[in-house]
Amino acid sequence: MSFEWPWQYNFPPFFTLQPNVDTRQKQLAAWCSLALSYCRHHKLYTLDVMEAQESPVFNNKKIERKLSMEAIQVVFEELRKKGNLEWLDKNKSRCLVMWRRPEEWGKLIYQWVSKNGMVNSVFTLYELSNGDDTEGEEFHGLEEWMLLRSLQALQTDGKAEIISMDDGKGVKFF
Amino acid sequence: MDRFSWSNGLLEINETLVIQQRGVRLYDGDDKAKMDVGAALLSTHRLIWRDVKNHECCIAMPLSQIIFFEEQAAGIGKSAKIVIHLHPAPANKEPGPYQNSKYSYIKLSFKEHGQIEFYRRLTEEMTQKRWENTPVSQPIPAGPQAGRTRAVGIVGIERKIEEKRKETDKNISEVLQSKSFEILKNVSWWVKISCTGPECKMVEVSRSIANKIKEKQGDISEDETIRFKSYLLSMGIANPVTRETHGSGTHYHLQLAKQLGDMLQAPLEERGGMMALSEVYCLVNRARGMELLSPEDLVNACKMFESLKLPLRLRVFDSGVMVVQLQSHSEEEMIASALDNVSEKGSLTAEEFAKLLGLSVLLSKERLLLAEKMGHLCRDDSVEGLRFYPNLF
Q1: Which of chain B's termini has less CB crowding within 10 Å, N or C?
Q2: Which of A8, A10, A11, A63 to mutate to test the interface with B (most CBs of B within 10 A)?
Q3: E strand or H helix at B215
Q4: What is the domain count for chain B?
Q5: What pLDDT digit, counting tens, does each position of B30-83 carry?
């Protein structure tokens, strides 16, 4: 299934940061949703700002427009404010993209657990993300840091507890 | 050098400028003339020389005075020259800077080069002898005493103005005989602004011209139109409000604002209700002729529009561009038209929009920016320039 670009992607002004405040808000909202859906479609979890500039998301070769570095930073900052992005370094050159926030992932995992009646059982993290049982689930193949974050979120809600095991980490659902 | 006579530097009716060269020094024979460096002008009828600093200082001689001329190459520390040998001055010659001269030739010394082209054009004119086919209008004697006397200072300037006006009078009556139609709209405006003054006579003349033209509706050469326009422009405002007549300060600006209000109405309507302040400045000063306005005074006067309840407004755009606009000129309409135009074309740059509306680029850009500010348009700022699109966001 190929990625479906939003209509804005072929609209040249989309690639210029709009000076009008209202217009800019709408523009940024569109950028955020495009960036997230793109990452989701391609299962991207980390982004490099330098690379991002060359990626098709921010560079539309067909209409010969690309989003400037500054504008990309603005979009990323907007994503960070919404809780979908975290910087990995102080220079803001690499970031984690969370097209689903940890709480949302946690919820998905917990739904699966309770649906399969496995509350009160213990899983290894590997089992959850790469096990045969979870195949076909959305969180299958989730990166470990992300998985850990989601489980931590569940833990704060009191729905799970992360346990340290000899060969890595495990989790118990309540 | 005694062949030269004083001139006002203006070309006559049938005279056209052929070439002009800066940085030319005159020599009376082999001696440096007592004048500074200036510009040498060659017309179809005359050789004219004008002082570079003092434009009032201008001398001319008819080309028919020339016997022959030759080039003198440049040397070390010497500029190239053209030596012009001349017939003796006619007895009825008007006065010039030299009463008499022991030389029968002059030299043009080209400090800033250009002698080659000047020489070529001079040769052309001398072979064509265009002055013989199209004689210039005969100058009318200025006053009872024959021949003009050179006066300095204010008297001189006044006399010069008087002369110029007489000439204009005559020229207009000449144009009267030819046909013209394009000028009408301009005439009406100029008539309006000058009919309060003591120079009403002038106005009458131009009005009658306007009527005649209206009747004839014939074709007129572009050349004539332009010339006639320039005459009308030089008439201008008959009794301009000046610091002398109205003192300085607020009162002066108030009066000035009223006058501006009257004279700007028509040109503003013609230009779609808005003019850049710089454009207004040029227009006003052209109309005033002598009593020029300073930019500050103009701005101050424009600021008075509102308190005087005049139908004009000074408007300052966010970018700092100042314009004078008609009060009736509504912003909503302006924005709506900008949006319409952009929607129709898909996208527009300020230049394209300007062409479409016949506005200046500066003003058309302000309109687009305004529409953008109101959220109707959005921009695409790329290497190809700034384009505006309908705001689809």
Answers
A1: C
A2: A11
A3: helix B200-216
A4: 4
A5: 888 888 888 898 988 889 998 888 878 889 988 888 888 888 888 878 888 999
